[in-house]
Design brief:
This protein has 5 helices and 5 strands. By secondary structure, the chain is an alpha+beta fold. β3 and β4 form a beta hairpin. α1 packs across α2 and α4 packs antiparallel against α5.
Length: 177
């Protein structure tokens, strides 16, 4: 399906852009509601720990044309609302309300969680690289390009400074032999 207008994206940091749920919903309201399309959600499971919902899109003949499932932990704030919007967001994605650059679907909360996980992972990798510089700076230097997407520019600069210091120590030690 070719969209009638470009979808607005929002940046969630580190170069990741997503189409917010509300933008997808606005597009649906602008171009599908008038043609008789409707949205509906169904609770698939709800207990003390999790809520699972299915979002559904129906055409004018009330035939389901797309659906999507989402889940949230029930102890999260606004878990019911977030689960409902997540399920509908996925259903609208499946319907074809998609930006050309999107290859997967996530809502703003999932995107923030992904960024937190990447930051945590980047921090752990940085700490292990930092500790290993004095053991084998060549190995650390070779790992920098592979980890460039999860290390900050400050972390890379610090690693390179420490690597250069280790190279200098080695050169001085060899020169004094």
């Amino acid at each position: 399906m070719k969209l009638k207008r470009k979808l607005k994206k929002t940046s969630i940091g580190r170069g990741v852009n997503i189409v917010p749920w509300i933008e997808r919903l606005n597009y649906f309201n602008d171009y599908f509601r008038g043609e008789g399309y409707t949205l509906q959600t169904e609770i698939i499971e709800m207990n003390d720990s999790i809520i699972v919902m299915k979002g559904k899109v129906f055409n004018a003949e009330q035939v389901m044309v797309a659906d999507g499932v989402a889940h949230k932990k029930t102890n999260e704030p606004f878990s019911f609302q977030k689960c409902q919007s997540g399920a509908l967001n996925r259903a609208l994605f499946i319907l074809g309300i998609v930006d050309s650059g999107e290859d997967s679907i996530m809502d703003e909360d999932e995107a923030k969680e992904l960024q937190r996980n990447k930051a945590t992972s980047g921090s752990q990798i940085y700490e292990s690289m930092l500790a290993y510089v004095s053991v084998d700076y060549n190995a650390v230097e070779k790992r920098i390009p592979a980890n460039k997407s999860i290390l900050t520019s400050e972390q890379i600069k610090e690693l390179k400074t420490l690597i250069n210091a280790e190279k200098s120590k080695k050169a001085i030690a060899q020169a004094s032999k």
